[in-house]
Amino acid sequence: MGLILPWLLNLFPILTPIAASALAWVMVPAMFHHLKHRRPISGSGGESGWSEAQLL
User: Fold this and answer.
1) Domain total for the chain?
2) What distance in Å separates the CA atoms of residue 43 and residue 24, rounded to the nearest whole number?
């Protein structure tokens, strides 16, 4: 939502691809880190923080 809504509302549309690229630069190494340490990439099988977020 944080990437798409500003683009849809035409608020600084140039920042949307920059933010998406920055997110990819963070997520790809994180994926390899999780694979290296054999952790599940998704939150299944452990606490993912959704229960705490839903309580707020």
Assistant:
1) 1
2) 19
